[in-house]
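S.,

As promised, the flavin-adenine dinucleotide run. Input:
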Amino acid sequence: MTTKQPVLIVGAGLAGLSCAVRLDRADIPYRILEKSDAVGGRMRTDSVDGFRLDRGFQVLLTAYPEAKNVLDYDALNLHAFRAGAMIRKDGRFHRLSDPFRHPSEALSTLFADVGSFADKTRILGLRRDLRRTASQVRSHRLTGQSTAGALKKDWGFSSEMVEAFFRPFIGGITLDPELKSDRAFFEFVMDMFSEGDAAFPAGGMQAIPEQLAASLNPEWIHLEAAVASMPDARTLILEDGTRMEGEPIVIATDMTSANGLDPEIDRRAWNGTTCVYFDAPSAPLDMPVLMLNGSGTGRINNVVVPSVVAPGYAPEGRHLVAVSLFDTLRSEDGDAFDGLLAELREWFGAEVDDWRYLRTYHIPQALPSQEAGTRVLDAVCARLTEHGHIVCGDHLTTSSINGALASGRVAAEIVMAKEAVA
Ligand SMILES: Cc1cc2nc3c(=O)[nH]c(=O)nc-3n(C[C@H](O)[C@H](O)[C@H](O)COP(=O)(O)OP(=O)(O)OC[C@H]3O[C@@H](n4cnc5c(N)ncnc54)[C@H](O)[C@@H]3O)c2cc1C
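Predicted complex:
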């Protein structure tokens, strides 16, 4: 199949790359225009003093159906977290393990001081329900009901269980501490957690977009090529004044940039986060597990030690500690930073004084809000606008690695369908 002109893809995040991978397989020429200095978009990893710092803590859920199709997990050399979590509550840690994956720990889980016995059995019921309705969940059909509402009203969880477990766990994933996200996203994420692992690639999260880019023609990926405007459906103008023609143009940018290029594309609120990294001489917890704040106070949402999960995250003999906050702390705010250190000392004691601060990532635009009642396309995760552009990205579906990959693939399928009728 040939086209008169290449498809122009704006943005080399997961959606743009996934679109290009699909076009590449169909022998359709394309060019990717990316404003940044590397591929990956919101999934980038920096090297600092031998540490790998992901730009914000994030994980790949290995059960993601689209990721399974498009990524080579073996080549990514994935390192998995242990299922479950350590919950910080009443001044100590409580282990909440997944009784299906770690049956020997089932009893300690059922009697851990987080939620009631009935809450633990409800978790098992929730898991069963999600497995039964998995295909429906994956269609991302929005319900209009918030996660908090569903947890309390439909599944009957106690307020304590919601506060101590679901708020830091699911709220930390959707970056939505009030659990306002549509329950469809919660069900999708829970189903993915129960079906597979949360994992880091050995080389950091940016290894995921890099793997996609490695299968593309490098001469067709243009970095530091910011698109300034699109005067019509086939033309775009770069910030340096270069004019390019393509057919069609795929807008695979983040939501706010997409709206700037084509105002027909909806813009919603963003959920933000802050991730603070430290270099530690020893791991504060020598277990590949997520540590959640279930106390209902403080600014910490979760703490992980990526180097315990995937040793390549830190140089030999050191450990990397990642502290994620719900709010958007700025490193230059000294008082807030001292407050954070005091909170970390409460969690881990005086060893925190031996930690060396590495870097803070302040990310106010991390995930498009998925609040119940907001308009997000149902099931179809890419579309054609009235201006003739094809648009894709995580803002059109679940704000996730899976959503972005699926959206890019569907955008390519729209391109191919247009070609077939042309
Ligand atoms: C802190 C954080 C934590 C997360 N945690 C998880 C998690 O645990 N699990 C999970 O599944 N997902 C997680 N996500 C979400 C996931 O990373 C995103 O959904 C996904 O990376 C979005 O990909 P995208 O291609 O849609 O958009 P983006 O990654 O935003 O890519 C858009 C690209 O377009 C480029 N661009 C923008 N404007 C222009 C322009 N004018 N010209 C040229 N290029 C332009 C940008 O530079 C960017 O490279 C997290 C995200 C963040 C930030």
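The CA atoms of residues 4 and 418 lie 13 Å apart. DSSP finds 14 helices and 21 strands in the chain.

- D.
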